[in-house]
Amino acid sequence: MKGEILKLLKETDGYVSGQELCRRFGVSRTAVWKVMNQLKEEGYEIEAVRNRGYALKGSADVLSAEEIMSSIHTEWAGRQVVYFDETDSTNIQARRLAEQKAPHGTLVVADRQNGGRGRRGRGWTSPSGVGIWMSLVLRPKISPASASMLTLVAALSVREGIEKETGLLAGIKWPNDLVLNGKKICGILTEMSTELMEIQYVVPGIGINVNQTEFPDEIKETAASLYLESGKIWKRSGLIAAIMEAFEKNYDIFLETGDMSGLMEEYNQYLVNRGKEVCVLAPQGEYRAMADGINREGSLLVTRADGTREEIISGEVSVRGIYGYV
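Structure tokens predicted for Bifunctional ligase/repressor BirA (326 residues):
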């Protein structure tokens, strides 16, 4: 009930009477009063006026299942939210829920992770109160070979959601990072479960540095946050909602063809590697090449100095800039 009352307060321009809340939700005035006090304790600014009712005047950067669900306006992405104040990893929890038949679109969010993971087994710093740490359960009807492209779909959607909510123009560093002013603000880790060569579920995990004011010494030269790049504190629930809306749209475009053909032009537009010399870290050795953009399979096309063109698959190699992270 708390989430439904919160959603109604957000959608109402003005006051909602206590009598109307009692009638709509079939509860007593005392129960409504208790919900309002709970919302105030969580950081919401609730104004109560005699003979008028209750109005939501504002809130701090509250993160809870009720706050997230009351912010999201999608058909399936994030319509079911599982929230943790602290957990080991949202990817681990999402995979556990997927094994328990959690529906397509289930969103797992944590205020803090104590075992966050990045690509190639690296750790991911996930402190409380400042970041978005979330994972989405997907059950796509595609071949396992196509699942890695969902990382690119997620990256494109995070970029779009950030721009919509903050106005900041992030770029994509192929295949799974987002950057602002040459520094990393987001990483994406996608995991998959298959059975008899059919996908059981795919879980893209997304970590976004939102309101951090500082970073550990080992990453402070390459990491940034939306706050550090804008000077403004951002509400994480609004960002999550904008990203879910963008992801639902882009995912549906992706499913129409089962590849990146419908999203390729937009992805390449924001690809910070494109047109730059990069260092390709391949198993057979490193080499330099010019990055040309992605193809419809999501591979990065690069051209070597001798004119040889190659397709780089994200699961096999990494790409980094010649003169820095980008």
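The CA atoms of residues 301 and 311 lie 5 Å apart.
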